[in-house]
Design brief:
Helices cover about 55% and strands about 10% of the residues. α1 (about 20-35) packs antiparallel against α7 (about 105-120). It has one domain (about 20-120). The chain has a two-stranded antiparallel ribbon. It has helices spanning about 20-35, 45-50, 50-55, 65-70, 80-85, 90-100, 105-120, and strands at about 1-5, 10-15. By secondary structure, the protein is mainly α.
Length: about 120
Amino acid sequence: MYSRERSHFGDMRIGIRVDDADFRRKIDRLKKNLEAIGGRHRVPLEDLITPEFLKEHSKYQSFEELVRASGLLGGEEALTTEKFESIPNDIWDDWIRRVTDFSTWKAMTDSASVAYIKRKVNDGL
């Protein structure tokens, strides 16, 4: 519920009443979420470069599709961490620049990290 009132300066103010139980629950959840993401973490690439993230920033639906479309893996070769890490950085950056909203792989993973943190902070709120 809200109410309107005028201050002595004539500006409009809106009073907001907050349900204490719901507010406390959300604050407790936010505190728990922040504690969970504090410190240093190793986050799997598939948790950073999610299908939703890729759809927003490229035409690809999955990380594997993005890598395979680059032509930098042989045919039906399995995508492994080792194979991915063997792709030269400059060639991968060029691919990322051409097919995403980002100029480099680092810029892409930085943006994905921010999106990941936002998801974790807002989880359950």
